[in-house]
Design goal:
Blueprint (H helix, E strand, L loop, with lengths): L2 E5 L2 H10 L27 E6 L25 E5 L3 H14 L3 E3 L10 H13 L3 E3 L12 H10 L5 E7 L2 E9 L5 H9 L7 H14 L8 E2 L4 E2 H17 L2
Parallel strand pairs: 1-2, 1-3, 3-4, 4-5
Antiparallel strand pairs: 6-7, 8-9
Helix pairs in contact: 2-3, 5-6, 6-7
Length: 249
C-alpha cells in the first residue's frame, strides 16, 4: 500500500516520524531509552510522499481559490491529511480522484481543525467520487477492518491501540504492542506498564494516565461539543481501555 501525507503542522510530522520509526523521534525515556521500538518496523518504503502545506493559522480565514495551495499529487492508494485549512480540505476530493487515490484519512486532534459539518461535506464529496474517507477524533480512535482504510490499519499497524500483556506472579512481565496510536505513544505506555501489579485496576489506570500525559498526547484539551469531553480525554480512555481489555479487568 502506498501512502501520501499532506500536513500543515507538528502532528503530521510526528505521525510520519513514527511510521518511519526515526531513531531520534521518541525521547520520552531519555537517558534511560532501551530502544524498545526501533528496528521493529519501518514503513518508509510505503510512504511515497510527504507534502508540507502552510499551517491554517498562517492563511486567510477564507480562501476563495484554494487550488494554488495544492501541489500536484502523485498517485497513491491512500492519503493522510492533517492540520489543513478547511477551504483546502474541501478541494481535496477531486484532486485525490485525479491522482487515483482511493482513501482519505483526516485526523482531528484539535476541534478547530475539522468541524462535524466540514467532515460531513468532505465525506460526501469523497463518496460521490468512490473515495473512502474517515475523520477519526482523535487519530487513535481510527477503527476500520474493511475497505482500503481497513487495509491501511492492518498494514501500518496504527489506529485504536491493541496490546498483548503477559503476567507472572501477579505482575505484568511483558507488553507487546499489536497496534499503536499513530503518534507512537502506545509504545511508551507499554514500557511503563512492565512491573506493575496486574490486578489493581486503580494502579493500572494511574500508570496509564501518567504515561499518556508524559509522552505527551497532542490532542486538544478544550471540550469538544461533539464528544462532550476533551479530545485528550478521549485518547486517554482509548489507551486505558486497551490495557484493561488485555488484562481482562
Amino acid at each position: 500500500m502506498k501512502l501520501l501525507t499532506l500536513y500543515g503542522g507538528n502532528f503530521g510530522e510526528r505521525v510520519i516520524r513514527n511510521l518511519v520509526n526515526d531513531s531520534e523521534f521518541c525521547k520520552s525515556c531519555d537517558p534511560l531509552c532501551t530502544h524498545c521500538k526501533y528496528e521493529r518496523y519501518c514503513y518508509a518504503e510505503s510512504i511515497i510522499g510527504t507534502i508540507k502545506l502552510p499551517a491554517p493559522e498562517t492563511l486567510p480565514d477564507f480562501i476563495d481559490d484554494p487550488d494554488p495551495y495544492i501541489p500536484a499529487l502523485p498517485s497513491a492508494d491512500i492519503m493522510i491529511a492533517t492540520e489543513i485549512h478547511p477551504d483546502i480540505l474541501m478541494e481535496l476530493p477531486p484532486r485525490l480522484n485525479d491522482a487515483g487515490i482511493k482513501g482519505l484519512i483526516v485526523p482531528v486532534e484539535q476541534s478547530r481543525e475539522a468541524s462535524s459539518g466540514l467532515a460531513k461535506q468532505v465525506g460526501e464529496r469523497c463518496s460521490a467520487l468512490g473515495i473512502e474517507s474517515a475523520f477519526p477524533k482523535p487519530f487513535c480512535s481510527l477503527d476500520a477492518t474493511e475497505g482500503i482504510i481497513g487495509r491501511f490499519v492492518s498494514e501500518f499497524g496504527i489506529g485504536i491501540p491493541v496490546l498483548e500483556i503477559s503476567v507472572a506472579n501477579g505482575v505484568i512481565s511483558s507488553v507487546t504492542v499489536k497496534q499503536s496510536a499513530p503518534c507512537g505513544s502506545t509504545w511508551f505506555v507499554a514500557k511503563k506498564l512492565v512491573g506493575a501489579p496486574a490486578h489493581s485496576q486503580q494502579d493500572i489506570r494511574d500508570i496509564v494516565a501518567e504515561a499518556h500525559h508524559s509522552y505527551p498526547c497532542t490532542a486538544d484539551m478544550t471540550v469538544d461539543r461533539e464528544l462532550g469531553d476533551t479530545i485528550l480525554h478521549r485518547a486517554g480512555y482509548l489507551i486505558r481501555s486497551a490495557v484493561e481489555d488485555a488484562l481482562s479487568l
